[in-house]
Amino acid sequence: MATHNHHTERIPMLMKSSTSNESLLSQLPSQQHKNYVMSNGNNINGIISNNYAINNSHFITRCFCHVMKSVQRNIQKCVAALVLISFFSIIFFTQYMDSPALVGLIRRDTKPMPLIHCQTLNKSPSDSSNTHDHRSEARLRIDPKVLVFVETTYSKLGREIAEELVYNRIKYKVEVAGKSLPVLTNLDKGRYGVIVFENLDKYLTMDKWNRELLDKYCREYSVGIVGFMSPSEETLVGAQLKGFPLFIHTNLRLRDASLNPSSPVLRLTRAGDTAWGALPGSDWAVFQHNDSTYEPLEFAQKNTLDYPTDGIQPPLTTVLQDHGKLDGIQRIFFGAGLKFWLHRLLFLDALSYLSHGQLSVSLNRMILVDIDDIFVGERGTRLKPDDVHALIATQKRIGDLVPGFRFNLGFSGKYFHHGTKEENLGDDMLLRNTDKFTWFSHMWNHQQPHLYDNLTLLMNDMILNKDFAIARGIPLDSGYSVSPHHSGVYPAHELLYQAWKKVWNIKVTSTEEYPHLRPARLRRGFIHRNIMVLPRQTCGLFTHTMYIDRYPGGRDKLDESIQGGELFQTIVYNPINIFMTHMSNYGSDRLALYTFESVIKFLRCWTNIKLTSAPPLQLGEQYFKLHPEESDPIWGNPCEDERHKKIWSRNKSCNVLPSLPKFLVIGPQKTGTTALYTFLSMHPSVASNLPSPDTFEEIQFFNGNNYYRGLDWYMSFFPSNNATLTNNVIQSSSNPRYFFEKSATYFDGELVPKRAHQLLPSAKLVVILISPAKRAYSWYQHVRAHGDIIANNYSFYQVITASDSAPKPLRDLRNRCLNPGKYAQHLEKWLAFYANQQLHIIDGEQLKLNPAEVMNDLQRFLKITPIMDYSSHLRYDPKKGFFCQVINETRSKCLGKSKGRNYPPMDEKSMKILQRYYLSHNTALVKLLKKLGSRPIPLWLKNELSTTT
Ligand code: A3P
To answer: Which positions form S-S bridges (predicted)?
Structure first.
């Protein structure tokens, strides 16, 4: 309506101004203006010069002029009226009528059409069962791992190779070429299925000894080699490749790549079409050969612009396979690196072929395209009926190539019918076609869930949207939802998970944020509170990408992504792809329709990938079937990711304490951890977590089921106070500055080091060690005292000597008793994640005998201030037999009777057995302690080793 008012206001202005020649003249084109002044000026001047004399001719002239003048005025009025009528008609038709032809007249139609130029597009890919199977018996003798020789740790192609392997979840080891070879075998198995040389030259010029060793390995285990020609400074023409009947030309510019359709290497890659145009780079190498061991895999033409020629040039071999007929080793040589997209596919095929199928990636891919919110969008950017038509038509066409394909439409009911009249018709048309799409719910008003700290309010918002769906006939049963702006999914906002379950019974969602947005190749899934969180991929279309000519980098950039670039590769590398697009990508130039139809056609053209689609729930189930190891989440620290900070629960700020613990006392059990915990808690600057109702002072978060309760649960043990952090300096001195957590079972928990490091990478670790034999005995007494039936039915000796054929409960008890004492093994696991300098080892015997000194050392290590002198706070209690906390001159407070228990000494036989049992572990511990630096070797360790040897 605003436009109309605007125009109606202008009409009187124009009419009025027409009474004044000057003002109307100023609105006419300059030529017309000039003529007008001349003709009128002459007439007026003539009348004045004759001083109003009355003669006929003058009268006739005057009358004529008068008539002419009024005719002229009327014509002007008519023209102005005509212009106005036409203008309003156009506005009316474009706003209120579904008339694309008319709209086309006034608006440039820029909508790009999806790619269709591909020779093989209409031929369906051949059945994968036989044609693309590289598997042979030989694969059973090698591990599915790649050994990559790089030039330096930072070299570009080496990094690209590693990235592609990571993306495809292929295990690999990187070695700098030129150094000695790593161990290649493991018992009777080859450790690597394929050897890759970032620079083929490094393979050719390897020293004789290593080359013989490597070639021998390759022959014995049927392991193949991939080598990339590296750009050479001098241009070689027909130079022989050292040791091979093979000749190369280097530093070429090439164009128009195609593939050898009969190559046995092709599996993922489909031959048949030509990648037209210049190939990236000016340093391509091509191979010339005349031995039957060689078979071309890829060809290209010389770039005729650079090398003008009159005749047709024969194709040049840019990727070559060596069947190994000459020396029994199969190889694939690449004439250039991975800058050319087709090489990325061929590289995966080379790994598959040369490893006899051990490194074959699946050919099945699933794809789901979400439309963020089909009703949220500014007027003028929303879907009109013809956009909805196009959406349905494209879905049909994609569905012909991708079985099961349906656009997945998100909705926030509040914004329904918020567009122009025509856009509202678009909304209605969507609702008339609900059964054609799958649907998922957002929040009613597209609000970010992490902003809610009240479950009822959050649920009410979801209920509003659910009521809207019921009223409008939108299906409710997808079990899928997406949170606006990824809010609250990861880092997990527990209220969102609860509300999703209660209102919608959500079973699956997706986000780009776990563990982080970038790098995309590391995005993963997890399951939290029974909701599968799937990784979502990026397709390059955002809310503001509505017009092709405004796409960042222009149309070429989008086409590059589709035609072998980022988007294409994303689908090639990810077995399950969920993309998020926005409603605005389906209006205007309909870029999403263009993008997905094009990329799917391009995939069809160049790969043997079988693309299918399914509703989100099936996708989720499939994802975790493929990656069961991802089910468990690994919680990171939201404060370490700027994006995470913005979508984290509102009541948790990174600038307000509590922070997470600064150090962890990780055990092991029965070494004096409670005494240490108590002593630390006496310090005014140190505070532990709040007690847990189940495990008292211990939270036991990182090792057991508590981990699944999430980060909010963990953080609730470190109560908020009002001290704030500014530039990492605490602004309130009365608050404890050092939060710590003690859970003695962390020490030997399999997953604990990784989980702890993910959340607390800069935490310090405190470990207490005593004789592992004594520890085992103390632990046995501990579980006995707690009424453990097995421990009460079997003597300590029987427990530690229980054989592997003993009843399971007894074996379990034996393991739990003995395993934590393998100190070196467990410490190594921690040190795989934490730096040596983050670890502090306390001699548990010293903690008993001289706790004040132990506490002094510990404070210095933790950099706790002020240093508290524990000698005046701890006193030896002869009755307890241990140091206790000083209360006053006469009273002290000791640990409870479960700490420092009275029990008979260990029998000699058990002692001997345990000393032998722990011998190798203790020896490894001495080695480790020495490696860790200046730590004195504890007396008990020296004694144990000397008694056994
Ligand atoms: P025992 O009860 O077998 O003697 P934890 O707290 O890790 O479970 O370790 C318990 C052990 O701490 C006790 O084992 C005891 O030997 C030791 N300890 C060390 N200092 C202590 C202290 N000041 N008071 C009580 N026990 C102490």
So the answer is: 884-894
What CATH number should be reported for the domain whose range is 146-355?
3.40.50
Tokens matching residue 123: 């031929």
**DSSP codes joined into one string, 708-772:** GG-HHHHHTTS---S-BEETTEES-TTS-SEEEEE-GGGTT-TTHHHHHHHH-TT-EEEEEE--H
Rounded-to-integer distance, Cα 220 and Cα 276, Å: 41
Residue 177: C-alpha distances to residues 192, 259, 920 (Å): 16, 30, 36
Ligand 1 pocket, Cβ-based, cut-off 6 angstroms:
669-675, 744, 778, 781, 847-848, 882-883, 895, 899-901
User: What are the pLDDT digits (tens) for 688-714?
Assistant: 999 888 878 899 999 989 999 999 899
Decide if 838 contacts 756 (C-beta within 8 A): no
CATH top class, domain 364-630? alpha beta
The predicted pLDDT at position 78 comes to: 67
**Could you tell me the distance, in angstroms and rounded to a whole number, from the CA of residue 915 to the centre of ligand 1?**
21
Q: How far is the CA of 787 from the centre of ligand 1 (A)?
A: 19
What percentage of the chain exceeds 90 in pLDDT? Answer: 77
Q: Which amino acid is at 295?
A: E
Q: Are 126 and 608 in contact (CB under 8 A)?
A: yes
Annotate 37-103 with DSSP letters as a single string.
HHHHHHHHHHHHHTTT---HHHHHHHHHHHHHHHHHHHHHHHHHHHHHHHHHHHHHHHHHS--HHHH
State which of 669, 673, 674, 676 you would mutate to test the pocket of ligand 1, scoring each by most atoms of that ligand within 8 A of its C-beta.
Answer: 674
Question: Whose alpha carbon is nearest atom 5 of ligand 1?
Answer: 670
What are the phi and psi torsion angles at 665 (to 5°)?
A: -95, 110
**Top CATH class, 660-716+735-944:** alpha beta
- Nearest CA to 444 among 433, 457, 434, 435? 457
The residues spanned by each domain of the chain are 146-355, 364-630, 660-716+735-944
Asked if 694 and 683 touch (Cβ cutoff 8 Å), the reply is no
Where is the binding site for 3'-phosphoadenylyl sulfate, in residues? 778, 899-903
Q: Whole-number mean pLDDT of the chain?
A: 88
Atom of ligand 1 nearest to the CA of 677: 6
Q: Which atom of ligand 1 is nearest to the CA of 777?
A: 3
Ligand 1 centroid – CA 671 distance (Å): 6
- Which residue owns the Cα nearest ligand 1 atom 8? 670
User: Which secondary structure element, helix H or strand E, spans residue 788, and what is its range?
Assistant: none
Fold match flag (146-355 vs 660-716+735-944): yes
The residue whose C-alpha atom lies closest to atom 16 belonging to ligand 1 is 900
Protein residue whose Cα sits closest to atom 20 of ligand 1? 848
Query: Which atom of ligand 1 is least distant from the CA of 883?
Result: 23
Q: Return the active site residues.
A: 670
Residue 768 CA: which ligand 1 atom is closest? 7
- Which residue minimizes the CA distance to atom 1 of ligand 1? 900
pLDDT at 207 over 80: yes
Tokens of 355: 């490893």
Amino acid occupying residue 632:
D
Residue 200, SS3 per DSSP: helix
Q: Which of 622, 651, 635 is nearest to 528 (CA)?
A: 635
CA of 653 to the centre of ligand 1 (A): 38
CA of 845 from ligand 1 middle (Å) equals 10
Residue 494's nearest CA partner among 686, 715, 645 is 715
Q: Annotated binding site: which residue ranges?
A: 778, 899-903
Per-residue pLDDT at 658: 54
Q: How many CA atoms lie within 13 A of 523 on its CB side?
A: 25
Read out DSSP for 4-19? HHHHHHHHHHHHHHTT
Residue of 665, 670, 781 with the most ligand 1 atoms within 8 Å of its CB, for mutation: 670
pTM for the model stands at 0.85
